[in-house]
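Hey, resending since the last one bounced:
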Amino acid sequence: MTLPAILDFARLRAAYAEGLSPTDMVDALARRLDEADPAIFISRVSAEHLRDAAAELLARAPEPNSLPLWGLPFAVKDNIDVGGLPTTAACPEFAYEPVADAFAVARLKEAGALVIGKTNLDQFATGLNGTRSPYGAPRCVFDEAYVSGGSSSGSGVAVASGLASFALGTDTAGSGRVPAAFNNIVGIKPSPGRVSNTGVVPACRSIDVVTFFAASVADGIEARRVAEGFDEADPFCRRFGAAPLPDRLRLGVPADDELEFFGNDAYRALYLAAIGRTRALGAEIVPFDYGSFRQAAALLYEGPWVAERLHAVLPFIDGHADAMDPTVRGIIEAARPMSAVDAFEGRYRLETFRRAAEREWAKVDALLLPTSPDIQTVEAMRADPVALNARFGRYTNFANFFGCAAIAVPAGFTDGGLPFGVQLVAPSDTDAALAHFAAEMHEAVGTGAGLDRGLVLPDVGRSSAVTLAIVVVGAHLSGMALNGELTRLGGKLLRAARTAPEYRLYALAGTVPPKPGLVREPGFAGPGIEAEIWQLPPESFGRFVAAIPQPLGIGKVSLDDGSEISGFLCEPAALRDAAEITAFGGWRHYIAAQADAA
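The structure tokens again:
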């Protein structure tokens, strides 16, 4: 078969619905990967192992709709662990063999996505340009003379060139957004703490964020929702919420004296055009003082947070400094003279800038900023690697310091054919609320995605941009008798899950169709109950809950990863005539046992 130029979710799913097998897909993709720029990947899953993974997927879940990301190929930045592939962080001497997948990778694979390989990056995720790697420099897909953006260079190029449906990056200073801008794709940077960093080689551990590159906002948000979740093993992971935004956004744009494009007049013009499009889409444009944001951004490389990068690689750099890229080494070793006093001084300055920024946030709902104010050739970047790289982070470096969510989208092309991008940045946990307008912006510019500039983009409606999650353990599980009640309301399976050990499961008497009852018993140490997490638009969630009959109801269900999500619980009075089935570990196993017995 011939794969589409871009492996967006909609077209690949349509191909699967028409009979394409994941095995055939990975065979065709393997041929495309063989012809791709070798600098994109540091290590790849072999064609044989890709076929094995596709076969395992079919054995586990034969139907395309049975898992949220069924059969979608994805790439992983090589500072994120994938079992069976080395993690190098773009430094061969640093390489190690991880014993397990990173938390986010495990969730995506569980949801049916297929890992195709580990992508190139600026060494130790230090840089925004993509040239600081001994494995080569991925290039902008529209002009190989120009940088790809970094540090998630290979991940951005993999999506833009049709090698992956989505890809994982990381973002400390803008690494999950700049490659999106330079390759005409979307970059989703979650609010810090929504996606676990377990299994990620740290850059600045306190503000690192796992990110998602995709052809569209809808695709990137879908992947993010699967990967995110509370992870007790990551001390910076948190139980997050969903902060709303108004239907008519007040979008902040920097006042004229803070707009800097370093002489790139084409990018300036494209940014002004993007402002005009957002106004036409209904946003109110509000000038604001970017000064405190810019000053906070400067702290990332000019302040003591460089010492956090040193801490991340200290044992390695002490013994293998000569193995490092000279520019990366110089940046990181600049932290050696820093003291604890410097660290506190930096923290105090950051809090001062945050307080000043609060006054500006009061004027706006979100910020509309250039993703990068400039782009450079590979040759120019190698000749002046620090100063030119610093330009790229002018509008991105502050975001994680301030706990922000951000979505980067394409915003046009220069007359010379180089892509430009803008980003929406908003306060913590507005991740879902930003999606609708970001998707409208992407559609309005009409540049498609990656190399496919005519790609039709999926809609992200206001009702679906914000969704509510619900845990089901019985007849509403996928493939079970009442699952249609969820799917008819627009429900989508997010992922499989298991409850915490303190739950018992009962087969309720006299229910048609048969239903279980889940009851929490503090102190009980059971196997945990098999569950699924589904997502519903808010209005559908309300209708679904209103139709739940006694003795069932909705309450908070604790999962084995430490998170708490609304789900089905049972009134204790209904258990008098019920049979306990906890030992089966879940409703599916119980129903299967009943069928076998019959």
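The chain is about 30% helix and 20% strand.

Sorry for the duplicate.
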